[in-house]
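@channel sequence for tomorrow's demo:
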Amino acid sequence: MVYQLRRQQFVAGDPGQVWDFFATPANLDRLTSPHLRFQMVGDVAPRMYAGQMIEYRVGIVPGWTARWVTEITHVREGEYFVDEQRIGPYRLWHHEHHFAPAAGGVTMIDRVTYDPGWGWLGAGAHAVWIERKLAEIFDFRGAQIARLFPSPGP
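structure tokens (generated this afternoon):
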């Protein structure tokens, strides 16, 4: 079964600087909870580009680290990029990152289309655990983004 996750967040700051942060693959570590034991594998180009393959390890559950290979399939400078899982725990993972200029910053929209696979077992795991876990991951990410790009005070 295919599921979707959508998040929208205002990011304070210059749109060019916000884009540069998200176009730098090494910054993904700064947005990922330490509980996931995130680790990039091998050399990663300092700037994202279409066709780029990024390999990392992620601690999905305690005691198990999954290999995840992502391809950056589309990039439109300053507007959006798309990453798709090539190897990893999901049957399908398609993550669109959109950036729209807004007063004082950028509105960032994430659209994730995913399928855990495994038929009814995957659907059950989604209902019991996956949906909640993804919400936690994106909640942490949102809090980190707000911390890294604080809105100016009144």
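heads up for whoever presents: Residues 5 and 112 are 5 Å apart (CA to CA).
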